[in-house]
Amino acid sequence: MLDIKKELPELPYDKKALAPLITEETFDYHYGKHHAAYVKNLNGLIKDSPREEKSVKELILEGHQKKEAGLFNNAAQHWNHSFFWHCLSPNGGGGPEGQVKELIERDFQSVAQFKEEFSTLATKLFGAGWAWLAQDESGKLEILPMSNAHTPITEGKKPILTLDVWEHAYYIDYRNARPKFVESFWEIVNWDFANENLKTL
Fold first, then answer.
1. Residue 107 marked ligand-binding
2. Confidence check: pLDDT of 187 > 70
3. Mind telling me which PANTHER family this protein's record contains (predicted)?
4. Does the annotation list 150 as a binding residue?
5. pTM for this one?
6. Right CATH number for 24-87 from 2.60.120.10, 3.90.1150.10, 1.10.287.990, 2.40.50.100?
């Protein structure tokens, strides 16, 4: 699992590396403005308080439990975005291999069936949010469509992969054509990262 600090992380690739599927201009806004704003807001909310000593994950759980929308939304969106950048790779795409392939075939019958279900849920998620592949306590994989800043962390589940379907993730490159953006995800999905996130069963 990534060690996510209370700062804007470096991208794991150059901003031009995923073009034309995700362009440098999109990264300038999505990463350079939206993600950076969540980090700035989070640090502003916890400045000069005991919360400065807490991890991002702890702040997500505390904000969720205490229904503090500002704390939860900024901490969760920072965590979600930091995780999302690693779900993409210029060397990604193709089919999964190793444990993630075995578990997808076990829990979704086939890779093709999994991709269809994930794409459908990501496309149809109303408004803003995230499509997650997560693993529950028993090791079973499931697809979670989650609105706004929500994350499997608050459900006690382990994030494996995610796709950001907030409009700012794709509007510059795809305008309102979310299905085309979702389709492009499979060309740059980082299956190696998914394998790293899986529990050892």
1. no
2. yes
3. SUPEROXIDE DISMUTASE, SUPEROXIDE DISMUTASE [FE] 2, CHLOROPLASTIC
4. no
5. 0.97
6. 1.10.287.990
